[in-house]
Design a protein that fits this description.
Layout: E1 4-9, H1 15-26, E2 31-36, H2 46-52, E3 59-62, E4 65-68, H3 70-80, H4 94-109, H5 112-117, H6 121-124, H7 134-150, H8 164-177, H9 185-195, H10 198-209
Length: 211
């Protein structure tokens, strides 16, 4: 197996890097973690731009191949390092796999107002005391409606057993729960269970230490 390298932002605040980080950890793949300081514009350096193509994080390097964009990286890792040798981060059932990918794509492309007013920093650092704007409230309600439909009364994983979609969903919901915004009890239970998973807990610990 080639030596894997994951490039993250130096603040460890990116939920998209976390999603790839969790995939590597859960699949049991050894990797080196390197950082790029986005505030200094290191993502635009010639060498990094060549690796990333899009000058963004995360970027994964696997031998002589490199790839950016978290969804593409996760799909690549799933196909290149498949079961049974490596754990899968997607449900075994084809329909549930499709649903997991649907949730991931939606969380990445919608809810912009919520992400702006409740950045990931509220999870491990300073909270935002300001109430959500009307637009962000609408996004939060949309998120909670979807989460309520997928999460059972005990706050178990979305599809009966853990998948990478749980990382994305839990982090997005954590924007509300960690900040103290009103959320149903089962949502809080789900977030607590997912947040205690080492691949998530260790990531936010890195973020807190990088402040």
């Amino acid at each position: 197996m080639n030596s894997l390298v994951l490039y993250a932002n130096s603040q460890f605040s990116s939920p998209y890097v976390l999603s790839v980080y969790a995939t590597l950890v859960e699949k049991g793949l050894p990797f080196d973690l390197k950082t790029v300081d986005l505030n200094l514009g290191e993502q635009f350096t010639k060498d990094y731009a060549k690796l990333s193509l899009t000058s963004r994080v995360p970027t994964l390097v696997d031998g002589d191949f490199s790839l950016s964009e978290s969804s593409a990286i996760i799909e690549y890792l799933e196909e290149t390092y498949p079961r049974p040798t490596y754990a899968s981060v997607f449900p075994g059932d084809a329909r549930l796999r499709a649903r997991a990918r649907q949730i991931q794509a939606w969380l990445r492309s919608d809810l912009g107002a919520l992400r702006e007013e409740r950045p990931t920093t509220v999870i491990y650092a300073t909270k935002n005391p300001k109430p959500l704007s009307g637009q962000a409230q609408h996004a939060a309600q949309k998120l909670l409606t979807v989460a309520n439909a997928l999460i059972d009364a005990q706050g178990n994983p979305l599809f009966g057993q853990w998948s990478i979609a749980d990382v994305d969903m839990a982090v997005t919901l954590s924007r509300l729960v960690a900040n103290g915004d009103p959320t149903p009890e089962k949502i809080q239970s789900y977030v607590a269970q997912q947040s205690s998973r080492p691949c998530i807990a260790d990531w936010w610990k890195r973020a807190a230490q990088a402040r």
